[in-house]
Amino acid sequence: MKAVGESMQFPLIYYKNNVIGTINLVEAMKNHGVYNLVFSSSCTIYGDPEHLPITEDHPTGNVTNVYGRTKWNIISLRYFNPVGAHPSGRLGEDPTKAFTNIMPYIGQVALKKKPYLTIFGIDYDTVDGTGVRDYIHVMDLASGHVSALTHLQKNHLRYRTYNLGTGEGVSVLQLVKAFERITEAEIPYQGLPRREGDIVSMYANAKLAKKELGWEAKFTLDDILLEMAD
Ligand code: UD1
């Protein structure tokens, strides 16, 4: 479960699914002698950044599982904001359940399924007052997992973390303008107050993943939007 706002409303469900679920998985792995794990982490663990762009050694919340750190060969991948779709279209930005992420929302406004986009916060200290994120194609995330597993097979790392991002910070308004330019759809929007739990600016320094995993994001924002236009 991964929606910041929802987690503020239903914290116990988040603890149950994400924490207890992981413990169950790790127990099952131990019982079956599986010792390689790629963990789907999130840039949100950095909290309000002390510096930008964020490197993997930026302070995070306390990691409590010493057993995991010493016994397991783990890579933790810190996703920035995943967007886009698998080329088949079977996984992508057309959610079947309620959602809160910006990209599917913009998609639905473009298709006139929603009247307008609501922008959460227009008075942030950013280039145009809206929140800044690092939007990374899901297929780049997928290739990051393959690189991580390959690396784990060759090295005992104990526990190592990598940022998976493009390094490019894009504001909500810049995203809307780029979407309009590339898809030729119109995206009306309305400014709303800031969303509880949101961070102002987030974008990655992903140089460690390039150096050690040989991975880097291949898709630019324009590539992603061109695919969506198709
Ligand atoms: C968060 C996590 C990210 C995680 C993602 C999964 C942070 C910094 N990032 O992304 O690591 O992968 O959840 O869901 O906590 N916005 C609007 N209107 C909307 C929706 C969003 O203006 O209708 C704005 C948000 O305020 C934000 C940006 O668009 O500035 C992106 O929001 P969203 O797509 O919901 O993802 P995050 O909350 O950034």
Mind explaining what this structure looks like?
This protein has 230 residues and is of the alpha/beta class. It has one domain: 3-Layer(aba) Sandwich (Rossmann fold), CATH 3.40.50. It is built from 8 helices and 9 strands. The protein has helices at residues 4-9, 11-31, 66-71, 102-110, 138-154, 172-183, 207-213, 221-229; strands at 36-42, 73-79, 81-83, 117-120, 132-133, 135-137, 159-164, 170-171, 189-192. The strands form 4 sheets. A 3-stranded parallel β-sheet has the order 1-2-7. It is globular. The model is unreliable at 62-71 (pLDDT under 50). The protein binds uridine-diphosphate-N-acetylglucosamine (UD1). Residues 2-4, 42-44, 79, 81-82, 100-102, 105, 118-121, 131, 133, 172, 195, 198-199, 202 line the site of uridine-diphosphate-N-acetylglucosamine.
Keywords:
230 residues, alpha/beta, Rossmann fold, three-stranded parallel β-sheet, two-stranded parallel ribbon, 38% helix, 17% strand, globular, binds uridine-diphosphate-N-acetylglucosamine
